[in-house]
Amino acid sequence: MNTAGIRTAPLSDADAIFPLLSKFAKSYRPMRAAFDANFPGLIEDERYDVLVAGRDGQLARYLLVSDSLTLFANGVVTRLLELYVNEEDRGRGIGRELVDQAVSRARDRGAVEVTVPTRRARSFYLAMGFEPPAEFFKLSLKI
To answer: What's the CA gap between 7 and 11, in Å, rounded?
Structure first.
């Protein structure tokens, strides 16, 4: 049962998602102009999925996934890139519902696996059955 009111985000959710993104990002400083330029592409491109859920009539959670066609995995790998649940809502199973919904949707799209890079939520994903297959590295290309 979808107790968290999970739904696909429309463009009109941009003003509600940006403040959540600002709380989520610790290593980056989200800029509204970049968000406004990129958000429509995420909504319109079928390789991305933005899910949201509300509380008391306001958005309090969001999740972003992206699909990549790979050679190594013999198909599409869905990457869970962002998941944010307001602090007062944590521990109630809402994050789990968002991830379960994203996994179900990935399966429906024919993905062969779902991956997630994380530092802060390791125990959350391990409890959901995710496994740490490798280290994740990044190279910043900031100008």
So the answer is: 13
